[in-house]
Amino acid sequence: MDSEQLRSSSQRWMNAALAAFAEGPENYDFAVHHAGVAAEHLLKAYLAGIHPALVVDGRHFDSLLHATGLGSHAAPLTKVRTIGLVEAHERVLKLLPRKIPIDKKALEPLADARNGVAHSAIHDSTQAEAVFTICLRLADPVLAELQADPVSYWGPYLVLHDKLVDEQVRQERVAAEALLVKARSLFEQRFEHMPRTERDVVLAAITSKPMITMEREAPKQCPACGSQGWVAGEVNVQGSDGHEGAYLLPYGFYCAACDLDVDSQLISHLGDLDEVVLLDDDPYDYLGDEPPVDEDFYRGR
Q: Global pTM?
């Protein structure tokens, strides 16, 4: 549960993953599996740097004893139970909500590919590049938080890393622009023939409430047609200087006027749709009796 040991392990797994990826499709199963392990260890390295208890299964008391320096009262260290990739990502996302570009939904292909290979020897080789790129984009901000040298971490595969990330970003930008073009065309078909006053009444009626069911929504101007749309996402509570706030972390957008429907993969390429929204909600509605999480306090340790 040592942060540096986990980071070093992540680097070794990542180099093995990149080596397998470079060898071609016949080794993509190794690539996605090893990349998933590398991502998990890197996320745990960040968590362990804050406190080792953040990487263990909180339901297992012996593991908590080891994490809190009381291992002499517990079963051997080899019996420690730690969290998996999905939960490690969830914890890091909660601590670094504005810095991690991969949300829970976007992580699924990586987690599914790693688990498919590990447990069933099954994976979709046609999705290997996309899955691999998710891992790379997840790793970069975590490395920055750990103040790790990216040149050292990626080693001889730094150029491959850059090409994969750049190509994925380019593809996403093209896809995002295509969504805008389609939405604008549909908006014109629906409302171009209407008088302005009639159109305003209709738009007000159909855009006044969110059309998607998520954990929480907030109004946001549509980048395609200018109508009121809705960003949806998860709520995160942060505090600083004694002031707490509930923030919406967007991972989706929908506009009823033009049917612009944006998922977590493309939302960052459409203006300010992915910007964190300060809600009017009482943060303690989400915290219960727990005190608010203060990210600055933890990072200053």
A: 0.75
